[in-house]
Design a protein that fits this description.
The chain has 386 residues and is an alpha/beta fold. It has 3 domains: 67 residues, no CATH class; 97 residues, Beta-Lactamase, CATH 3.30.450.370; 213 residues, Rossmann fold (3-Layer(aba) Sandwich), CATH 3.40.50. The chain has 12 helices and 15 strands. The strands form 2 sheets. Strands 9-8-10-11-7-12-13-14-15 form a 9-stranded mixed beta sheet, with helices on both faces. The chain starts with 5 loop residues before the first helix and ends with a strand.
């Protein structure tokens, strides 16, 4: 893009293509690519573009017409884990746990809004001024969240959480320093031993990644039902696998299928284990009851700042859907949960397990936790024998 005429050339070719590619017929990708290539080659001589600039321009124009515009290279870049667009002029990515702002920008807010609507339409979702929020999963498994004006004050906002084509293994987590070999063996034995495990942590701390890794330690001859708000888990090797995904309401506000609905349904599907992607509300009670009614070895995750805070949050979530006494809720938690695993995102951007704790029972009216592994000076150390 060093050539001063590059931007002017792109704008001129785009106007030509808009006139050439009338959308009264369906153009194939090959046809569109051919039109783009021909237009670029015709204008290249006028603007003095070299071979590299021509190639870059063809990809840019084609991505704008048939793909995800300037986000397409970022979506294809495996080193990028998150893409964040704050209005047309500010594009951020996360690479290796670090946030970076890129020099690229959309032409105008309308171009970004069109792209967001294209993404939403691809998964049968609608976003517009009347309904300015969307939370959805793309076909490749990526998770998108978007907000349009007037709710978004500085222009359309978009966040994309990407997921690797190949799911991570325990060996990958060990290599990244997420946990130690001793802790990995402990957790794998806990999964094999059918202990009910709850994973907690803040946003982007690695909860879903760890859940997926632990789920892949489930014996392959068992029947597993996964329940997610947006399908992200990739359990491999389990033949008897049932994958369920919640459904938001349609444009008329109907057709909702909640996580709570799916947990209740899962109990009728004869699961050996239930894996709930994330617990956020009143479904916490249903999850606890499932864990305590013959589905040992189930797993789930939730947002919290510590293992102890997660227990408090579960209490609050149960109360969102039930008026049970606090003592009864805590008794249910002690009977249902065996272990809490807490992750944190460190200052250098890495994700680490910082605590593994066993549920010991009730002491008075308080839940007693026994910390088995704890983070000390950046290393997960075993601090209890059990």
């Amino acid at each position: 893009m060093e050539n001063d005429g590059y931007g002017a050339c792109v704008a001129e070719i785009r106007r030509v293509l808009e006139g050439t590619l009338n959308y009264e017929r369906d153009w194939t990708d090959r046809e569109v690519k051919n039109h783009v290539t021909a237009a670029v080659l015709e204008k290249a001589r006028v603007y003095g573009l070299d071979t590299q600039a021509k190639k870059q321009m063809i990809e840019q124009l084609f991505n704008g017409l048939r793909r995800m515009d300037l986000l397409q290279p970022l979506l294809e870049d495996e080193s990028v884990t998150d893409i964040m667009v704050n209005g047309p002029n500010h594009v951020f990515v996360e690479r290796g746990g670090r946030m970076l702002e890129l020099s690229c920008a959309f032409e105008d807010p309308r171009k970004l809004e069109d792209l967001i609507q294209l993404m939403a339409a691809a998964v049968n979702r609608e976003i517009n001024e009347a309904s300015p929020l969307v939370d959805a999963r793309l076909a490749d498994g990526s998770r998108i969240g978007a907000v349009l004006p007037p709710v978004a004050l500085d222009g359309p906002m978009l966040a994309i959480r990407k997921f690797p084509a190949q799911s991570l293994s325990m060996a990958d987590l060990l290599e990244k320093g997420t946990l130690t070999v001793q802790a990995a063996d402990f957790l794998e034995e806990a999964v094999a031993g059918r202990r009910n495990i709850f994973i907690s942590g803040g946003t982007s701390s690695g909860k879903t990644t760890l859940l997926n890794v632990l789920s892949n330690s489930i014996p392959k001859d068992q029947r597993v039902v996964t329940i997610e708000d947006a399908a992200e888990l990739k359990i491999e090797g389990v033949q008897n696998l049932v994958r369920l995904e919640a459904r938001p309401p349609n444009t008329e506000g109907k057709g909702t299928v909640s996580i709570r609905d799916l947990i209740r349904m899962a109990l009728r599907l004869r699961p050996d284990r239930i894996v709930v992607g994330e617990v956020r509300g009143a479904e916490a009670l249903d999850m606890l009851q499932a864990m305590n009614t013959g589905h040992e070895g189930s797993l789930s995750t939730g947002h919290a700042n510590s293992a102890r805070d997660m227990l408090n949050r579960i209490e609050t979530m149960v109360l969102m859907g039930s008026a049970l006494p606090l003592e009864a809720i805590r008794q249910q938690m002690v009977s249902s949960l065996d272990m809490l695993v807490h992750l944190a995102r460190m200052r250098d951007g890495s994700r680490k397990i910082v605590e593994i704790a066993n549920m010991k029972g009730l002491k008075g009216n308080e839940i007693e936790l026994e910390t088995v592994f704890a983070e000390q000076e950046g290393i997960l150390i075993r601090v209890a024998p059990s």
